[in-house]
DNA alkylation repair enzyme (Fluviicola taffensis), 225 residues
Amino acid sequence: MIEETITQLEAIFEPFRNAKRAETAQAYLKDQFPFIGMKTEVRRSAQKKWVDSLKNIDERIIRWEIIRALFEKKEREYHYVAIDYLNSWPKHYFSPEDAEELRWILSTHSWWDSVDAIASNYLGKWAKFYPEKARETFEKWRFDESFWMQRSCLIYQLKYRDEVDSLYLEHLIQQMNGNKEFFIQKAIGWSLRQLSKYKPEDVVEILANNPIKGLALREASKYLD
């Protein structure tokens, strides 16, 4: 079933192959992945009926197998379809067992575009539904050898608005601030900048109590008076 399902999507996408657009998209992501060459709006329009056909799949394992199969494809557009499909799941699809699958997808073909789209959407919702499991998971991920897993811990609350757990965010920042990797420092600043829109006093306190400097500080301070 999985192979046939993916083949159907391949048949839908193949007529849209465009070498020039693919080259431009590939260059934008620093040549990390090959592309078919589809604009986002074209891809989403083309994939809509295919994604809609998956909505009646009740078996959790099959849903995740479809996502894995998409992420194992080489062209980046298939990864984007997987993310769109995942982020469209209703509440009753979520499971505390998703932690392992989430780790796999976040650490497979990792780059900022996929990690950020998953972490700030599905992962953030999942963490709200299963806070204890999420905390247990993030306490493992913050020590992960992949900085993309660490970045995911820092940004999963991006859409929480005034419901951000500022103390836990500060805890994570304290653990990762020594990592000078660009994508970690950017995530620290981004998470604090977003928090400053709703709890500026918390950000001021975090900055006062922690040696946050450089890129992270510039990002975090952007909306502060």
User: Anything to note?
Assistant: Residues 112-129 form the longest helix (18 residues).
